[in-house]
Amino acid sequence: MPSPDRDDQLHLAAFVTAGPGRPGGWRHPASVSDWRSAAYYRRIGRTLERARFDLVFFADILAVPDRYGGSPDPQLRHGALGSMRLDPTPVLGVLAGATEHLGLAATVSTTYAEPYSVARSFATLDHLSGGRAAWNVVTSFQDAEARNFGRETHIDRASRYLRAEEFVRVTAELWDSWDDDALVLDRDAPLFADPARVHRVDHHGAWFDVQGPLNVARPPQGYPVLIQAGASPAGRDFASRWADVIFCSHASLESARDFYADIKGRAAAHGRDPREIKILPAITPIVADTTEAARAKSAELADLVVPEAGLSTLSYHLDIDLAPFPHDERLPDVDVPGVQGHYQEVRELTEKHGMTLRQLGRRYGGTHEGDFVGTPREVADGLEEWFTGGACDGFTVTAVYQPGAFDEFGEGVVPELQRRGLFRTDYEGTTLRDHLGLARPTAGEWRRRAAREDTP
Amino acid sequence: MPSPDRDDQLHLAAFVTAGPGRPGGWRHPASVSDWRSAAYYRRIGRTLERARFDLVFFADILAVPDRYGGSPDPQLRHGALGSMRLDPTPVLGVLAGATEHLGLAATVSTTYAEPYSVARSFATLDHLSGGRAAWNVVTSFQDAEARNFGRETHIDRASRYLRAEEFVRVTAELWDSWDDDALVLDRDAPLFADPARVHRVDHHGAWFDVQGPLNVARPPQGYPVLIQAGASPAGRDFASRWADVIFCSHASLESARDFYADIKGRAAAHGRDPREIKILPAITPIVADTTEAARAKSAELADLVVPEAGLSTLSYHLDIDLAPFPHDERLPDVDVPGVQGHYQEVRELTEKHGMTLRQLGRRYGGTHEGDFVGTPREVADGLEEWFTGGACDGFTVTAVYQPGAFDEFGEGVVPELQRRGLFRTDYEGTTLRDHLGLARPTAGEWRRRAAREDTP
């Protein structure tokens, strides 16, 4: 039974890479390689919409990672996660035109962008899509990214989060700079917009000076949905205060449950209803008609992964060079500056399952040989256990090969979840906030939340 | 007869505003006000493609202009050109998915963006659209824009163009950072991309430090098409060296012809074939079944324009406050820091036609009561005169009301141009460069051009 702290039904996001996808996946016979074309994203969008997904989510990075061995070559050679990545914003434009219900999320870094541009871009996507835009807020931590934007090294984590905090506040102020009823469109008066209901922002902070108003009316959703993935203490604090959706990664039900309880507790401590935050851990299901066929597919996919492909991606996620460590031994305890969520997962796999670095590379390269491999019913059992077990509000589905694995999940697992009453059989609202069961923020919501923070 | 210096057929761009369009136009009964929706742009894209346009072109500005009377209110009240403007990049994403042939151009400022982001965004659009992307390079000159990006005032023109120059060079280096054959996609080897054919950029200049490589393969067009609109000496020099397409604005055949000859001469002086640059002046045709009906429509449209709507836009284009000048007198000679092309047009209208400021406001607000008002045949006569008279390589068509005026032009004037052999009856290639008759640049083209410049 879902607890009263959670929705009755789970939510589904799809994690899509605007590039070759998970390492090894591009080598699978069922994967297609036209991920540079609009047609590819149109097809994925329609598949996800048929399966009634809440949203599609595009990760991003602003460089070809070169953390493993100090070179981008392993990423490029193996088609690893950072080898090639289209800019997600125009891709969302394609999807805004090609879909009618699906939520549309893009990752944009607060470290290498400007609040006016980001506020405008997501306001535009929210208008174009009729209220379906979402922004995954990241702070970026790769030196390779810094060196593409005029810096030698990335900014330290504390400063990045201070900048992110101010960035998001300014962005919200810009979304609020047009009142909901500012656009009058009276052809006879004539009165296009009421100047009294359009406001300057006049923000002057440590990182940004922005006059405003935005030159786009308030987004249909008030604010586009905000997504965050921080698992460090600073990240969790930021996410529990501002995020609508949290994307995370866990190797076990137990660690997912701990994270879930921690975030919901932090949200409550910040005066939010914990149901205002939807926590959607990543899963990589492998589905087939029989258990044996699913396991065989999993093994086949594992064979396609060159360990170096996975390790070069893990190097970039953890922000440490894994090349010098012996690949047939376990990774020792190390100081990891990168994504803490991934490191927690790695520690769990190393300590509990005894994985060597090479095995980690293979696993990280594309397949999860554990929980969610099996028939649609078996996969649904696993998802139900996590959902009813207090580990999540739904899932972020990654495809082992794009786009086929989304079809398999949508045609196999989703109907099984629907039969169990765990997932919608049709969209009930029009905006992404509707799908997620989130209220539309009224103007000033961010200022009110910030004021609550600033006066303890 | 077209001269051997020009193409046999003219080129057509459509100037679309991702907002209410030309002042007054939004008030016309035939205009629709769903310019916030993806459906609106899909419809415009398909109209233009049916009419075989070369490209659609989105202007942009990064603020609600407040130059007239020091306030954004007149722009907002009257739905003037800068009142509300969606971000053109996601709009191009919609169009990349919804069209198959049309070139797709967005304006992005070199003053308030980063080369890595811009190179990536246009490379993405070029891939998504199969080689149809174009970038209109602007340097931005409004203090209102500067104040949305952490500055009190805009950078001076000379510095802006130095920055633009370096910006465009770095962008081209990033597009060249993947050789054309770098993406191998060999699933068996496996070899995704050949690291030996992906290069760092290692740019260290006065404005930018960028390591590279880009995380997107070389665009299908080599470089997306570059558009420029500078009419100042610095702008003309920049455009004649780097632009593929020039957008401009002229009140008479004579001034258009002077500009045309000047640019083509400058291009030749820089060692370019003058046919490598397509000059497409803006026109605002008003088409109807009879001459009288067209004139009546023009008058009707003029009545919809509040002079203040046009003057507040003119104030922003010229970057001077026109509010204090007597509106029933002619504008005296003034020092204009803004768009020189528009000022030349204003001077011509003031001196030759005796227009007062109020009349300028009305004209600037949305209608051209001169050259291109009439039946399809009469409008085609005017276009033919300009084209064969050495004033242009084609036109940038602005709609007096969106999107209807594009339908009228496409259904009336285009067939007339086709009958005369002046315009294509079908697309003959697949990329925008194909439509424009421009060669695909090989890798290093920009470095070669820059080297030619740097060694006189």
Based on secondary structure, the structural category of chain A is: alpha/beta
Tally of DSSP helical segments of chain A: 16
Series of H and E elements of chain A: EHEHHEHEHHEEEEEHEHEEHHHHEHEHHH
Which runs of chain A of at least 5 residues are low in confidence (pLDDT < 50)? Answer: none
CATH superfamily of chain A: Luciferase-like domain
* Beta strands of chain A, count: 14
Please, how many domains of chain A? 1
What is the end-to-end distance of chain A?
Answer: 36 Å
* Oligomer description: homodimer
Do you know the CATH architecture of chain A? Alpha-Beta Barrel
Global Rg of chain A: 22 Å
Average pLDDT metric of chain A: 91
Which features does this protein show?
homodimer, 456 residues, alpha/beta, TIM Barrel, eight-stranded parallel barrel, two-stranded antiparallel sheet, 16 helices, 41% helix, globular
What would you note in describing this structure?
Chains A, B: InterPro entries: Diverse_substr_monoxygenases, Luciferase-like_dom, Luciferase-like_sf, NTA_MOA. Chains A, B: Belongs to the NtaA/SnaA/DszA monooxygenase family. Two copies of one chain form a homodimer. The radius of gyration of chain A is 22 Å and the shape is globular. In chain A, a hairpin with a 4-residue loop joins strand 7 and strand 8. The first copy, chain A, has 456 residues and is of the alpha/beta class. The model of chain A has no long low-confidence stretch (mean pLDDT 91). An eight-stranded parallel β-barrel of chain A has the order 1-2-3-4-9-10-11-14. Chain A has 16 helices and 14 strands. Chain A has one domain: TIM Barrel (Alpha-Beta Barrel), CATH 3.20.20.30. The interface between A and B is large, with 79 and 79 residues.
